[in-house]
Amino acid sequence: MKFIDIGVNLTDPMFTGVYHDKKAHEDDFKSVLERSKRANVNKIIITGTTLSDSREAIQLARKFNQLNDDNFPKLFCTVGVHPTRCNEFEEQGADQYLSDLLDLVLDGRKDGTVVAIGECGLDYDRLKFCDQETQKKYFIKQFELAKQSQLPMFLHNRNTGGDFAKILKENCDMFLNAVVHSFDGPEQELEDILSIGPHVFIGINGCSLKTNENLNVIKKIPIDRLMIETDAPWCDIRPSHAGYAHIKTKFADAKKKERFEMGKMVKGRNEPACINQVLEVISATINQEQESLADTIYENTDKVFFQQ
Questions:
Q1: 3-class DSSP state of 117
Q2: For each of the chain's 308 residues, which pLDDT tens digit applies?
Q3: How far apart (Å, rounded) are the C-alpha atoms in residues 87 and 134?
Q4: Smallest Cα–Cα separation from 10: which of 267, 227, 269, 280?
Q5: Cα distance between residue 5 and residue 45, in whole Å
Q6: Which has fewest Cβ within 10 Å: 70, 120, 221, 273?
Q7: C-alpha R_g of the chain
């Protein structure tokens, strides 16, 4: 089996040993990549969440791809603004900020480093960071980036009461393809999103597999509209999650960050090498053999992000 992890926050300082602004252990970024490759993760898409974060993601991807090291996956990235960070548009000047995003997208598209617009969308669980109207305004603005670049969209949706699906439907002619990543919504929301068209896909990670209701919704996703991800260092599948019972691949030698050992996973810090766990839960939930399911998911992902 081989994998493409469509959502990894590789610019997060956890991957260099920094947690909550405090250094806990030495930088093990290369070890994370090496474990990913040994787990047959061939490609990783780094998530961009702001203008500055997207710049960092591009630099990181280019740096490691230039090494031409077969021990590392190939790195790619998205460019966009997370809904909780949309205040940056107005704080830094909306027109210039959007223009700078587009310049970054077009530059990254030239060498294939940038493969999607995002992470953008709506998040009503964290309105303390950015209000609904500001989120909606700048979610809509980012469709223009997809239209001008002809790149797919990497989308975020949390507890939006239908607003997300409505905006996506109203702007569905602005993008060629899109994936709603880390989906954890109810069945009706899934149906509303899938009904927009066959160019809209669903991304599943550990946060999508927490409850029995989540698992029942997974059964409703057509496998030709499915992608998987880790959203590392977040969204690991924990023992308290409904999906955990289906995990076969476990990492017994993982160490707490306080007892860090180079070359071993850090407990509680998700990473791309764990993507097979997501596949295992989905495979068991929908009763489909892992290898064929992995092949279909890989084909879906490759078609959307790497055959443009």
A1: strand
A2: 999 999 999 999 999 999 999 999 999 999 999 999 999 999 999 999 999 999 999 999 999 999 999 999 999 999 999 999 999 999 999 999 999 999 999 999 999 999 999 999 999 999 999 999 999 999 999 999 999 999 999 999 999 999 999 999 999 999 999 999 999 999 999 999 999 999 999 999 999 999 999 999 999 999 999 999 999 999 999 999 999 999 999 999 999 999 999 999 999 999 999 999 999 999 999 999 999 999 999 999 999 999 97
A3: 7
A4: 269
A5: 6
A6: 70
A7: 18
Q: At 204, is the secondary structure helix, strand, or coil?
A: strand
To 10 degrees, the CA torsion angle through 306, 31, 181, 134? Answer: -110
How far is it, in rounded angstroms, from Cα 211 to Cα 238? 11
Q: Does domain 3-306 have CATH number 3.20.20.140?
A: yes
What three-state secondary structure class fits 22?
strand
Q: Is 224 annotated as a binding residue?
A: no
Across the beta sheet with 153-158, the strand order is: 3-8, 41-46, 74-79, 114-123, 153-158, 178-180, 200-204, 226-228
Which backbone phi and psi does 230 adopt, to 5 degrees?
A: -110, -30
Q: Does the annotation flag 119 for ligand binding? A: yes
Q: Report the run of H or E that residue 75 belongs to, with start and end.
A: strand 74-79
**48 DSSP 8-state letter:** P
CA-CA distances (angstroms) from residue 25 to 117, 233, 251, 274? 33, 15, 19, 21
156 is in an annotated binding site: yes
Q: Domain residue spans in the chain?
A: 3-306
